[in-house]
Amino acid sequence: MSDIYIVVTPAFIRTGKRKHEQFDAYLRDTGELICTATRQPLLDASRELLARGYDPQGGICKQRDDELFQLGIDDEAPGPFPTIQFAVAVSLRQTRHYPRRGVA
Predict the structure, then answer these.
(1) Boundaries of domain holding 63
(2) Which of 35, 46, 55, 104 has minimal CB crowding within 10 Å?
(3) 62: CB partners within 8 A, 6+ apart
(4) Residue 99 belongs to some domain of the structure
(5) Residue 89 and residue 46: Cα distance in Å, rounded?
(6) Residue 47 within any structural domain of the chain
(7) What distances in angstroms separate CA 46 from CA 14, 25, 42, 68, 72, one per listed residue?
(8) How many domains does the chain have?
(9) Is the predicted pLDDT of residue 30 greater than 60, yes or no?
(10) Are 87 and 25 in contact (CB under 8 A)?
(11) Does residue 63 form part of some domain?
(12) Domain membership flag for residue 32
């Protein structure tokens, strides 16, 4: 079971204008586009990977695709990665029908 890295880039419309708070998610190893114009790229990518048959117990990590990350100056420290299955479960519980705090 290996960890899956999702590279997140800002989403743009055809004219080149950036979509506010929306991102595209790619697989780091293959560069394959997983989901477009999403506000929660890690969670939506987890759902898509699960639908594509990836191991639900595999770890998943999001990383930005910008200059700060490539230079190693990014403030996001690597840590224990959540599993795809956990990320999908969290995203299902954090809808507008359920409270975000105190969810078991």
Answers:
(1) 4-93
(2) 104
(3) 5, 6, 8, 25, 41, 42, 45
(4) no
(5) 10
(6) yes
(7) 26, 10, 6, 25, 25
(8) 1
(9) yes
(10) no
(11) yes
(12) yes
